[in-house]
Amino acid sequence: MAIWTEPLTLDKLNAWNQGCAVSHLGIEFTEIGDDFLRARVPVDARTKQPYGLLHGGVSVVLAETLGSVGAACACPAGHRAVGLDINANHLRAATQGWVTGTARPVHIGKTTHVWQIDMVNEAGELTCVSRITMAILRPTA
Length: 141
What we know:
By secondary structure, the protein is α+β, with helices and mostly antiparallel strands. 21% of the residues lie in helices and 38% in strands.
């Protein structure tokens, strides 16, 4: 059974992020499952640091994007999801191609969500693991 509180499409998720950091970095949503979201980021001139590696901050942007969108789409209508804490462990460098992140909920509560985001290179090797805690805010009057 899907955890999403409204129907989701890739077109909707990608359009939602147009004109902000997500689209400027080339991040695109690629898959929606019953309990996960998947997106990828290119390893190119926009996203590399001076050593030619994917910038660690870009991995965190990918993780925060996936966790935030996941929480926003899994919380009740009218509620908002905002980040409380994020961490990331960088395990392997990426120098080319795409890095793909998959976000799954660890905890979906009334006031907080915790999401795990695993990122892999094109060979399927883990490049970064991240966990984000989201506050779920009630609608304001």
